[in-house]
Description:
Layout: E1 2-7, E2 10-15, H1 21-25, E3 34-43, H2 47-58, E4 61-66, E5 75-82, E6 85-92, H3 98-106, E7 109-117, H4 120-129, E8 134-143, E9 146-154, E10 160-165, E11 178-179, E12 191-200, H5 206-217, E13 220-225, E14 236-243, E15 250-257, H6 264-272, E16 276-284, H7 287-296, H8 307-311, H9 313-317, H10 324-330, E17 333-337, E18 340-346, E19 357-364, H11 374-387
Bound molecules: fe (ii) ion.
Amino acid sequence: MEHKIRLDNKLYTYIMSTETFAQKIAKAQDFLPINGTDYIEFYVGNAKQAAHYYKTAFGFQSVAYAGPETGVRDRASYVLQQGKIRLVLTTALKSDHPISEHVKKHGDGVKVLALWVDDAYSAFEETTKRGARPYQEPITLTDEHGEVRMSGIYTYGETVHMFIERKNYKGTFMPGYEAWESAYKPEDAGLLYVDHCVGNVDWNRMLPTVKWYEEVMGFVNILSFDDKQINTEYSALMSKVMSNGNGFAKFPINEPAEGKKKSQIEEYLDYYEGEGVQHIAVATKDIVKTVTDLKARGVEFLSAPPEAYYEMLPERVGSIDEDIKKLQSLGILVDRDEEGYLLQIFTKPVEDRPTLFFEIIERHGAQSFGAGNFKALFESIEREQAKRGNL
Ligand code: FE2
């Protein structure tokens, strides 16, 4: 079914089937039950400082630590939490270490998208049987608080999915970690859970990656955009959204497409030096409050779309609860699908390389990803790309 979106006085179309997301998701296979995102682990150059940044700028709280003081000799890991979102920031202590190699090549970035499962052993067996490349053979970690079982497989690039089973574990995060007591406790920013994590893959790699999520993980493709739908005057990309059977794990996959100038996905691939996580979308119940707060803490967001975007908003999305003037002053974008509307905004990249960024999203029924905002969003990204000399 073709949908039309009027934006900047041009009519855009995108294709959605008549099935609801719930109906599509129901077709996913359940050999890999997933309860949600367990944690997201970043490999970084200096985890101590990165942890401070995520506490100060985004309002995460200190949870756990592993490092030389806790008997881990080769690395330091800081676990932070806000709502259900758990970040692990890890750095190696010597250059001759796979984590240092990862950081040297990719810069700071996401290494692990960990999924909370009921059975880490069967998750490994079911996915490797279907062709997944093993990253971590199933293991059981035990301490006085219980046990955590885990396993892992590679997905796109050097990124991995860990499967974490923590039925009876009562300790802090997992064995090997100690509670991280910190006197520095900045207020949280109202971030609740991971809504979706987007991967950028290389030219001609989107379809094989989609097939991999279907065959290996039992996911379904719930939404697709081609380069005719996602393009600006200068660049284009293609995207397909993959979801598991309960919708708790959603991984959109982007691929660059030919345009007059360099696509933002190509810029990412050049600077990450490979495929990887492009953005992490985190949900809030009050985006106006969250974004006001994050801005005051120094989080940088992409510039607001032009005036015309907000003038046309009532016509494009109908009535919404929020004050449009307020949304405009913060640069928050709005989109609507048949199930409701959503509010979203994107940060600038959170490291010097133009790679990973965050999305803040507030859903009012809508289960889609803001297709009506793609053009405005990409033009904003292109303004930043041009400043970097990469457009
Ligand atoms: Fe997103």
